[in-house]
């Protein structure tokens, strides 16, 4: 099966690579959003120190995983 070639001579990424790239981009955006929302919500609840870092980290991982999953699904549909 021939490999499709882009306009500048490089090979196009296959579908799995696009899904991986979509997940990583979504994970990064979700982590940034989770950092902002997690910090504000944890500070509003009165968390400090180690508890604050744990709460913010948990929120960042949750939102990053969720948004990354949806971006990966979207990139898979586009393939």
H and E order: HH
Shape estimate: elongated
Mean pLDDT: 90
Main beta-sheet annotation: none
CA-based gyration radius: 18 Å
Determine the structural class based on helices, strands and strand pairing.
mainly alpha
Cα distance, first to last residue? 17 Å
Number of strands: 0
The total count of helices amounts to 2
Low-pLDDT residue spans: none
Strand content: under 5%
* Residues in helices, as a percent range: over 70%
Subcellular location: Membrane
Protein name: Reactive oxygen species modulator 1
Keywords: Membrane, Transmembrane, Transmembrane helix
GO cellular component, one term: TIM23 mitochondrial import inner membrane translocase complex
Brief characterization of the structure:
The chain is mainly α and 79 residues long.
Could you please describe the fold and organization of this structure?
Helix content is 76%, strand content 0%. It contains two helices and no strands. Helix 1 packs antiparallel against helix 2. The mean pLDDT is 90. One of its GO terms (biological process) is protein insertion into mitochondrial inner membrane.
């Amino acid at each position: 099966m021939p490999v499709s070639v882009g306009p500048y001579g490089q090979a196009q990424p296959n579908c799995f690579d696009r899904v991986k790239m979509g997940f990583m981009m979504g994970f990064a955006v979700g982590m940034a959003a989770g950092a902002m929302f997690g910090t504000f919500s944890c500070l509003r609840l009165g968390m400090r120190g180690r508890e604050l870092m744990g709460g913010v980290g948990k929120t960042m991982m949750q939102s990053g995983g969720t948004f990354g999953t949806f971006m990966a699904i979207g990139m898979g549909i586009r393939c």
